[in-house]
Amino acid sequence: MKERCALPILFILSAGLVCTGQTPQSNRPVYEVLRAGTPVQVDGILDDPAWAKTPLLGPFVNNRDGSATPLITEVRVLYDDKFLYFASRFVDDNIWATMKRRDDHLWTEEVVEVFLQADPRKTSYIELEVNPLGAMIDIFLLDVRKPLHYESWNSEKLRWAVHVDGTVDGKPGDKEWTCEIALPMEDIVPAPNNPPKPGDRWRLNMYRVEQLPAKAMLAWSPTGVDFHQPGKFGEIVFTDRRVP
């Protein structure tokens, strides 16, 4: 990814309970994370009934300046005592990636990225990336741009999957790709409470990197040029409200 170092790793809606509101202090988006009633099946296909009842995290905007984008990007987040779940959908008529190995430098191609800082009082945070070929890089950073060596930290129980409606060859004619991630709570070691308690607030940002047919760097909470700015991440707030 050219926009960052090569070093790796809710206005409340009465029906939906979550949102993309703004915190008065930081002017950053806030999303309320609902509790999953049953474990989510991580297969990359977003047909789990829980996702249909989970509000969207969004909108996604251009990371550099916060301007609107025509690229359709949808993300939803749930949790239970064991996992933090992410479901993402990317409308894309030209899906492209080539890397297939774990811990490859996926950000140089097309990818979804999760940045999570469970305790803003600490400097550490987690970065996850998945590309349309199903490759994963999981990174634990001790501080901004100070990761543990990629291969030295692999989340043992991390689960992820993708589904592609099209081909991953850089040629037009595709429709979309989807991704599910289940991040084990046991690996989110900086969290003050694990599992989180209702009312706990963590920092989160989600990014989408596009390369073809045109480059785009999208974010839930825009950070400018550099993705690694935890102080500009959005915020998630955990609730005990459940989805079936």
Verbal overview:
With 244 residues, this protein is mainly beta. The chain has a single domain, classed as Immunoglobulin-like (Sandwich). The protein is 2% helix and 37% strand. The protein has 1 helix and 14 strands. Strands 1, 2, 3, 4, 5, 6, 7, 8, 9, 10, 11, 12, 13 and 14 form a 14-stranded mixed β-sheet that branches. It is globular, with a radius of gyration of 16 Å.
* Number of helices in the DSSP assignment: 1
Number of strands: 14
List SSEs in N-to-C order.
EEHEEEEEEEEEEEE
CATH class: Mainly Beta
Describe the global form.
globular
End-to-end separation in angstroms reads 38 Å
Supply the CATH architecture.
Sandwich
| Biggest sheet statistics | 14 strands, mixed
Work out the count of structural domains.
Answer: 1
What does the oligomeric state look like here?
A: single chain
- The pLDDT mean sits at 90
Q: State the helicity in percent bands.
A: under 10%
